[in-house]
């Protein structure tokens, strides 16, 4: 297991009560589990919000100590083409469960990575072995799951965790690991994680390996993101019409902190709304930022595209289109 995942596993919630941020979903799933008769489930939402954790809790609550014998997990690192669905999944699904619960559970993590052919095969397997097996699928985008599978599942949509939810988990870890952290640093940690609890825990672990006192500067160093103050200077130079200084400052920020073009774009997009300019201009610049981000994702040269973005800011500052 990689070091970055040790705390993620160590502090993974083991009971429904320990889950944070998805209260409505947890309550509904808990009631289904207590009835010992869950339907097929589709857990959809962003990474690090508790989908895999909830699936494990369901299995442990259902089967207690026998959960490993009645549980099959396939994730994105496994080969999951049509042959795997026809053989491994089908063989596991057709056998009788051990214990009082009349069915087994198969968990397909990142099910949106399954090919369309594999999803069609899975659809038939879900139909034929409903009495002996339940499927729990997790994905980031439910739209990538074919409609026949969606219609066979109860869909729960997870949302990004709020600051108070991540703060609750972070404070638990801080207490058990004897670390020091301020409320301001927790806020920095939350902003860096963007609602992804797993990322927040990994950042905390990386910071703790350097110093038991966690600071905002330490976290900013680890995430290698541009400081808002630096990006603000870049944009203000551009809006004032000084393209060369703006370009030099941007180059300095990227080379000094080893920040990629897409990360710069995200920082620019956030900082636009803190600038002292008209709201209409902010909207136009945000639209331009989105266009440049698309070009970067498609493989364009990041320096040229970022210079084009700065040129747009210069023109906007002069009142030109």
In terms of topology, how is this protein built?
Elements: H1 6-10, H2 23-34, E1 41-44, H3 51-63, E2 71-74, H4 82-94, E3 104-108, H5 116-128, E4 133-139, H6 147-152, E5 154-157, H7 163-177, E6 180-181, H8 183-193, H9 197-208, E7 213-214, H10 216-223, H11 228-239, H12 243-257, H13 261-272, H14 279-297, H15 302-317
Parallel strand pairs: 1-4, 1-5, 2-3, 3-4, 6-7
Helix pairs in contact: 2-3, 4-5, 7-8, 8-9, 8-10, 9-10, 11-12, 11-13, 11-15, 12-15, 13-14, 14-15
Written description of the protein model:
With 321 residues, the chain is an alpha/beta fold. Helix 4 links the parallel strand 2 and strand 3. It is built from 15 helices and 7 strands. The chain folds into 3 domains: 136 residues, P-loop containing nucleotide triphosphate hydrolases (Rossmann fold, 3-Layer(aba) Sandwich); 61 residues, Helicase, Ruva Protein, domain 3 (Orthogonal Bundle); 90 residues, Zinc Finger, Delta Prime, domain 3 (Up-down Bundle). Helix 2 runs parallel beside helix 3 and helix 14 runs antiparallel to helix 15. The model has no long low-confidence stretch (mean pLDDT 86). The strands form 2 sheets. A 5-stranded parallel beta sheet has the order 2-3-4-1-5. Strands 6-7 form a two-stranded parallel ribbon. The longest helix has 19 residues.
